[in-house]
Design brief:
The complex is a heterodimer of chains A (118) and B (114).
Chain A: E1 3-5, E2 10-14, E3 19-21, E4 24-26, E5 33-39, E6 46-52, E7 59-61, E8 64-69, E9 74-79, E10 88-95, E11 106-108, E12 112-117
Chain B: E1 4-7, E2 10-13, E3 19-25, E4 31-37, E5 43-51, E6 54-57, E7 64-66, E8 76-78, E9 87-94, E10 104-105, E11 109-113
Parallel strand pairs in B: 2-11
Antiparallel strand pairs in B: 1-3, 3-8, 4-5, 4-9, 5-6, 7-8, 9-10, 9-11
Classes of the chains: A mainly beta (118), B mainly beta (114).
Chain lengths: 118, 114
């Protein structure tokens, strides 16, 4: 069965610290997609990144970086020099099994609440 | 601007009443989704639709109903059969062309049963 696990329920850091949010997934598919979303206090989910299973290159976007490792089924997210505005709930998600057809459905982890203190 | 709108932002309902949550998108996306989020929890899929006039149950469809008469609209009705409807409801859409596109989310509707 497909599953996404975000073992860290809550993380609290002080501004300017680096922080890594863990995401571990399970799937039998060879072709799949992984996503990260941010949910600020306003509630709307904001898309951060999509990565397909054939692209294991790490990606950096400003203070954000993602480390995708197929060998350990992980897709971790690091925020460098955290800021108060980074405080939010972060969700990792996995595309539904390809055998089900392309429904576009995502399987979400439980989310990690990040609090950045000034 | 392209995006997803949900209305109302806050909704209060008396027990035994049906209520309908609106979701509209102008992104020309094929697929639309409804999620429920309870405090401190992740997202659970209620219903989804890949094409007009067709929709499928998600993981927690009981007590909910939907329709997809137009590509841009996917309203969700919370019926009196839903035992615990107080929650935050999020609508999303995605393009199914060219593989797995990201889902875009609306601002959400917070439903409270009085």
């Amino acid at each position: 069965a497909q599953k996404v696990t975000q073992a860290q329920t809550e993380i609290s850091v002080v501004e300017k610290e680096d922080v890594t949010l863990d995401c571990v997934y399970e799937t039998r598919d060879t072709t799949y997609y992984l996503f990260w979303y941010k949910q600020p206090p306003s509630g709307e989910l904001v898309f951060l990144i999509r990565r397909n299973s054939f692209d294991e290159q790490n990606e950096i976007s400003g203070r954000y970086s993602w480390n995708f490792q197929k060998s350990t089924s992980s897709f971790n997210f690091t925020i460098t020099a955290s800021q108060v505005v980074d405080s939010a709930v972060y969700f990792c998600a996995l595309s539904e099994a390809h055998g089900s057809g392309n429904t576009g459905k995502l399987i979400f982890g439980q989310g990690t609440t990040l609090q950045v203190k000034p | 601007d392209g995006g997803i709108t949900q209305s109302p932002k806050y909704l209060f309902r008396k027990e035994g009443q049906n209520v309908t949550l609106s979701c509209e998108q102008n992104l020309n996306h094929d697929a639309m989704y409804w999620y429920r989020q309870d405090p401190g929890q992740g997202l659970r899929l209620i219903y989804y639709s890949q094409i007009v006039n067709d929709f499928q149950k998600g993981d927690i469809a009981e007590g909910y109903s939907v329709s997809r008469e137009k590509k841009e609209s996917f309203p969700l009705t919370v019926t009196s059969a839903q035992k615990n409807p107080t929650a935050f409801y999020l609508c999303a859409s995605s393009s199914l062309a060219g593989g797995f596109g990201e889902q875009f989310f609306g601002p959400g509707t917070r439903l409270t049963v009085l």
